[in-house]
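Weekly structure sync, notes
Attendees: PL (lead), two postdocs, one rotation student
Agenda item 3: pending single-chain targets
PL asked that the sequence for the first pending target be pasted directly into the notes so everyone works from the same version. It is reproduced below exactly as submitted, 58 residues in total.
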Amino acid sequence: MKATSTSLAVAGLGAAVSTLGASVLRKNRFGAGVLGFGLAHIVLGLLDLARPTVRRSS
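Predicted structure, written out during the meeting:
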């Protein structure tokens, strides 16, 4: 699995969790934590995607 696909998978998982958290947020406050957790995954996945890769020539 390439680094870009891993980053996109983390961001996609964050989007799914954020959607779940937003739907639960309407019913109770637990959804706010789930929404924040998902948004953090989106941000971290996109930051990892923007990070330069280091290639080793060994």
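Discussion points:
- The chain has one domain: 3-50.
- The chain has two helices and no strands.
Action: rotation student to compare against the earlier draft before next sync.
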